[in-house]
Amino acid sequence: MNEFELKYGCNPNQKPAKIFMEDGSELPIEVLNGRPGYINFLDAFNGWQLVKELKEATGLPAATSFKHVSPAGAAIGRPLSDTLKKIYWVDDLGELSPLASAYARARGADRMSSFGDFIALSDECDECTAKLIKREVSDGVIAPGYTKEALEILKQKKKGNYNVIKIDPSYTPAPIEHKQVYGVTFEQGRNEIKIEDSLLENVVTKNKDLPQAIKDDMKIALITLKYTQSNSVCYVKDGQAIGIGAGQQSRVHCTRLAGSKADNWMLRQCPKVMNLQFVDGLGRADRDNAIDNYIGEEYMDVLSEGAWQKIFKVKPEVFTKEEKVEWLSKMDNAVLGSDAFFPFSDNVERAKKSGVKYIVQPGGSVRDDLVIECADKYNMVMVCNQVRLFHH
Fold first, then answer.
1. Is 166 a catalytic residue?
2. Which residues does 300 contact at the CB level (< 8 Å), separation at least 6?
3. Are residues 41 and 152 in the same domain?
4. 158 is catalytic
5. Is-catalytic flag, 392?
6. Residues 124 and 213 in one domain
7. Is residue 150, in this structure, part of any structural domain at all?
8. For the chain, how many structural domains are there in total?
9. Does one domain contain both 138 and 180?
10. Is the domain of 163 the same as that of 224?
11. Residue 114 maps to a domain
């Protein structure tokens, strides 16, 4: 099969639509179930590249949760604490496989954004991972293979229409890539830069202590940014992205957006949030929405009379600003990666508020000295790797 006909392109009015190999060779994928669409394939191919590189960089199974051609989450398969199991809604599944742990992390970091995601897995999808996927609202999955049990589980989703794509892990794209915009063809060399420890040697701050676990988190940040629509920044903690800011015109807006997501991830671990008592039968998405409102500025949307009774068994107390600040102060040793240089030190100031101690960015701004000075003020470790990772 060297082409696959699509129902339509980005929007229903954009017809005809298909994916195909210009050189007439076989497509590197096999659709095992469903009928993926144009945006599904964009998410699938970008997501597959991300997890393939994460696995190569860390040696652990990797997963990502993609929405609208940017990751909502990405992670490697480290074991989950009891707290993370609970806030990711997987505490009832028993022991998770490494691949399932990776997807639980990728999906759980920003559950609001991951709703209706397209999943990419670095390894063969096992039964444990399939069971986790089955219970989430998702459009499809791409992986290098599926066990018989996993495939049967996935085929039950969406009344048998769930998109399941198998990709050839040995496929290597041509070194030159093309795209068309307004009838004009663009050509460039693929971004084949390898994200590895050698890119993390240029530590520019006074504090130069960079443990291997932090280097791994920096690589996770950079690989995630490599497939995130620019401008972009990524907060990482203990093997997973916890806040991704994508497609903002101002870098500090990216840093604030991703920082607010990282803050929400941390706030969800507060006992006051974990002990919320939901009414019986409330769906997972509704619980996610309620938590997002409760920990945010619009908390009265779920605490007002007549509203809270539909969500909670017992009316929660307001999660005060002071309580949030105190809880967020416990966050530390987070990593922040940026796909281009920080033009001002305000990015570092915002990162500090979300527990960032380690930063990796290209450097090259005329204000690098001020940015580094700000990092030194907080005893941060900053790497300037001189590699820009714009993605469009």
1. no
2. none
3. yes
4. no
5. yes
6. no
7. yes
8. 3
9. no
10. no
11. yes
Range of the structural domain that residue 280 is part of: 271-318
E strand or H helix at 261: helix 251-267
**CB contact at 8 A, 29 and 168:** yes
What does the pLDDT profile of the chain (392 residues) look like in tens digits?
889 999 999 999 999 999 999 899 999 999 999 999 999 999 999 999 999 999 999 999 999 999 999 999 999 999 999 999 999 999 999 999 999 999 999 999 999 999 999 999 999 999 999 999 999 999 999 999 999 999 999 999 999 999 999 999 999 999 999 999 999 999 999 999 999 999 999 999 999 999 999 999 999 999 999 999 999 999 999 999 999 999 999 999 999 999 999 999 999 999 999 999 999 999 999 999 999 999 999 999 999 999 999 999 999 999 999 999 999 999 999 999 999 999 999 999 999 999 999 999 999 999 999 999 999 999 999 999 999 999 99
Decide if 68 is catalytic. yes
Q: How far is residue 169's CA from residue 284's CA, in Å, rounded to a whole number?
A: 33
- Residues with Cβ within 8 Å of 392's Cβ and at least 6 positions away in sequence, in order, are 229, 230
Per the residue annotation, which of 231, 264, 289, 385 is the catalytic one? 231
CA distance 222 to 343: 18
Catalytic residue among 148, 159, 321, 392, which?
392
Q: In 10 A of CB 210, how many CB atoms?
A: 17
Q: Per the domain annotation, does 392 fall within a domain?
A: no
For residues 72 and 265, the answer to whether their CB atoms sit within 8 Å is: no
- The residue annotated as part of the active site, out of 52, 55, 67, 237, is 67
Query: How many secondary structure helices (H) and strands (E) does the chain include?
Result: 14, 15
Domain identity same for 286 and 150: no
Question: Which tokens is 326 given?
Answer: 């105190």
Burial grade of 310 (CB within 10 A; 0-12, 13-18, 19 or more) = exposed
First to last CA, the chain: 28
Nearest to 214 by CA among 332, 105, 335, 106: 335
